[in-house]
Write a structure and sequence with these properties.
Blueprint: H1 3-6, H2 8-32, H3 44-63, H4 65-97
Helix pairs in contact: 2-3, 2-4
């Protein structure tokens, strides 16, 4: 495996976190400039975080399609290898019993 494929999950997670932080900064700026409501009472921080989560989810879904596919391929490969090892172990046990 190449180094790029071994870190597919880490790269996807980091990019997803970066999109969330970007949305958090944008939403925070819009709230500070008064373009978005500040929430009720002291709920400003919670409002900004929730709105950033709601905005970053569809952005991540669209923008990170390639990274998500690479991560999925990597995970499928690992699961297939684990299944092959389990099958090999099972056939060894069957041969020892008979």
């Amino acid at each position: 495996m190449s180094a790029a494929r071994t870190s597919a999950a880490i790269r996807y997670t980091a990019m997803r976190f970066a999109i969330f932080i970007g949305c958090l900064v944008v939403v925070g700026g819009l709230v500070q400039f008064g373009l978005l409501p500040k929430g009720l009472g002291d709920s400003n921080f919670v409002w900004v975080v929730l709105l950033a989560l709601v905005l970053s989810a569809p952005l991540s879904f669209v923008l990170l399609r390639k990274q998500r596919d690479a991560m999925s391929e990597q995970l499928v490969g690992k699961v297939d290898k684990a299944k092959a090892r389990l099958d090999a172990n099972r056939t060894q046990e069957d041969g020892a019993v008979q």
